[in-house]
Design a protein that fits this description.
Mean pLDDT of chain A: 94
Oligomer: heterodimer
Structural class of chain B: mainly alpha
CATH superfamily of chain B: MetI-like
Low-confidence stretches of chain B: none
Order of helices and strands of chain B: HHHHHHHHH
Strand order of the largest sheet of chain A: 8-9-10-3-11-12
Number of helices of chain B: 9
Number of strands of chain A: 12
Number of strands of chain B: 0
CATH topology of chain B: MetI-like fold
Radius of gyration of chain A: 18 Å
Low-confidence stretches of chain A: none
Chain lengths: 255, 225
């Protein structure tokens, strides 16, 4: 059996005594696109943030490329890696946030090249060349010198995608990438993501765009009440709708 | 008519006036520089350190901000004087004055920095982490520049307050601009003209600061306004 790129086993997350999710198992293979759907509060965003180590988790393990991230066993005790190592492990994943989170004091080019310069230690000229290349890929070759405040929401999110992918992560994580966008700007962002998928990028996408999830995914995960309730191909999830909870959830969407 | 005209007396006393201006400006520039540096560092500590580390800084800021500048100047002057004298060192009054103004300025700047940092959305820190930054890099490349831009207008305010605050230093015997002027006035009867004259000088100094601040703000602002 081929080892998956991302392997999550028995993952559990609590905020104090409040359980967010428990017993989550998930595999993502290289080149695969996996979408996570589910109602608000079902734990899907938190799951994504755990993979990027922005959240702690209390049980289970996350393996990226075969290596545990976030925590490791030492003398049969569970220990968090030091921040220095956590920072390096985060480079295995790229994160695209719901609210874009671009750096407002930098141009689009600055946003994309910052990590290349300061983390990947590329010389400025080389980093900026690389950054421009990615900005062109997301259709913003002519806006490299614009500040985030001069860009539309859709353009900002595309810069954020370029910023994440420029770091050459093994897997791209999208946290509801179009939820903060005006409806007419959703399409341009989804098209960029589809293009990346077609080019073979490995992606894990939390989304409320059901049609998009149906079209782009190899696998769809339905989270409900802190658990993975169903998992399957888009056809299995969206057409066969095997469980009642899934039927109920999908019936709230018109498409 | 007085025996000596205003301009004549001013010309005769020009060296004393220059020294007064120099002392005032020197004290202000030192206090602004020291206060800005210490205050920014303190503001970062107060925002990101653990509670028990924050506590003494919080106390310092609240106490200093809660008492009049004049009291700070006197307290520090007499405290340092007594303390250092026990080691046989005589502290120059100007030094004590600069330290006192720096202390006030530090407290002010710490509070400004803390406010500016707290106004930065959490997502900025997360975005920094997501591109593999460590905490120091997030501070330096993401938070500090944004905080500084936010802080510029209130920083200009506090700098002009510091320039005005240098007038307190005459009370511990520093021949700042105000003390020099008062000594001149004692030798003639041009009081009103002299006060107008030094008022104009303070005003010009602060106008330069505000103008520089505005120019910097215009260059740096990123909100597209």
């Amino acid at each position: 059996m081929e080892d998956s790129l991302l392997r999550i086993r028995r993952l559990g997350k609590w905020f104090g005594s409040l359980k967010v999710f428990e017993g989550v198992d998930l595999d993502v293979n290289a080149g695969e696109v996996v979408s996570i759907i589910g109602a608000s509060g079902s734990g899907k965003t938190t799951l994504l943030r755990c993979i990027n180590l922005l959240e702690t988790f209390q049980a289970g393990s996350i393996l990226l490329d075969g290596n545990p991230v976030g925590y490791h066993e030492e003398n049969s005790k569970r220990k968090r890696f030091p921040e220095r190592i956590i920072a390096r492990q985060r480079l295995l994943t790229g994160m695209v946030f719901q609210q874009f989170n671009l750096f407002p004091h930098m141009t689009a080019l600055g946003n994309v090249s910052l990590g290349l310069r300061k983390v990947k230690k590329l010389p400025r000229a080389e980093a900026e060349k690389e950054a421009s290349r990615w900005l062109e890929r997301v259709g913003l070759g002519d806006r490299t010198h614009s500040r985030p405040s001069q860009l539309s929401g859709g353009q900002q999110q595309r810069v954020a995608i370029a910023r994440a992918i420029a770091m050459n992560p093994k897997i791209l994580l999208f946290d509801e990438p179009t939820s903060a966008l005006d409806p007419e700007l959703v399409g341009e962002v989804l098209n960029v993501i589809k293009q990346l998928a077609a080019d073979g990028a490995t992606m894990l996408i939390v989304t409320h765009e059901m049609r998009f999830a149906y079209e782009v995914s190899d696998k769809v995960v339905f989270m409900d009440n802190g658990k993975i309730a169903s998992m399957g191909t888009p056809t299995e999830i969206f057409e066969e709708r095997k469980s009642d909870r899934l039927k109920e959830f999908l019936s709230t969407f018109n498409n | 008519m007085s025996p000596v005209g205003f301009w004549e007396s001013l010309l005769a006393a020009r060296m004393a006036v220059f020294i007064g201006i120099f002392h005032s400006m020197f004290a202000a520039v030192c206090a602004i520089a020291i206060g800005s540096f210490c205050g920014i560092v303190m503001g970062f500590i107060m925002t990101f350190a653990r509670k028990y580390v924050v506590f003494p800084f919080r106390l310092f800021v609240d106490v200093v901000r809660g008492i009049p500048g004049l009291v700070v100047v006197f307290t520090i002057y007499y405290f340092l004087d007594v303390f250092l004298r026990s080691y046989g060192v005589k502290l120059p009054a100007l030094m004590a004055g600069i330290i006192a103004l720096s202390v006030t300025n530090t407290a002010q700047m710490a509070e400004l920095t803390r406010g500016a940092l707290q106004a930065i959305p959490r997502g900025q820190i997360e975005a920094g982490k997501a591109i593999g930054f460590r905490f120091g890099q997030i501070l330096y490349y993401i938070l500090l520049p944004q905080a500084l831009i936010q802080m510029l207008p209130p920083w200009v305010n506090s700098a002009t307050e510091t320039v005005k605050g240098t007038t307190l230093l005459m009370l511990i015997g520093i021949s700042d601009l105000l003390l020099v002027t008062q000594q001149l006035i004692a030798t003639n009867n041009h009081a009103l003209k002299y006060y107008c004259f030094i008022g104009l000088i303070y005003f010009l100094l602060n106008t330069v600061i505000e103008f520089t601040g505005k120019a910097a703000e215009k260059r740096l602002r990123f909100d597209g306004g």
